[in-house]
Amino acid sequence: MSFFRRDEGGPVPAAAAATRPAPAPGRSPAAATRIAAGTRVEGEVRGATEVRVEGEVAGQVRVEGRVVVAAGGRIEGHVTARTVEVAGRIEGDVRAAERVEVVASGVVQGDIAAPRVVIAEGAFFKGRVDMGAGNAGDDGTPPAAAGGPPPAGRGRQ
To answer: What b/e string do you get for 24-58 counting C-beta neighbours within 10 Å, with b at 16 or more?
Structure first.
């Protein structure tokens, strides 16, 4: 038995299990949806689990869990989730029930609405930030546009 081989469904040696990072509480690594680099998805992405975008999405992303846009990932459309982490690019409005974080390599061109917003030094952001009450709703309306359509040139629906 090798410590470097993965046996799908088989027992994991104790030494290998000890070095493997534990999943975050309440989250299973198998519960995440991954859009791989080199893949382009057109249309609406909906679900209850985490979505990790390493490729491209052209359309709205609405999930109950977390959305992670990896360094090479890109979303052209509105994003609604519990939390959103951006290391890649989002062209559209972002709404989160808990938190939005744009790391140094991240780009957001659109409005952000969330109770907590972190924009790292070196990140690019063009839009408005709304950290007021009532951002947690998932009613499909873009942030900072109270009942109206998103401003022209901001993502696709």
So the answer is: eeeeeeeebeebeeeeeeeeebeeeebbbbbbbbe
β-strands 112-113, 129-130: how paired?
A: parallel
Residue entry with tokens 């299973």 = 28
3-state secondary structure of 149: coil
Query: CA-to-CA distance for 154 and 132, rounded, in angstroms?
Result: 21
In this model, does residue 35 exceed pLDDT 60?
Answer: yes
Strand-pairing partners, residue 86, are 69, 102
Q: Where are the domains of the chain?
A: 29-130
Please tell me the pTM assigned to this model: 0.69
- Asked whether the CA dihedral 52, 74, 106, 125 is positive or negative, the reply is negative
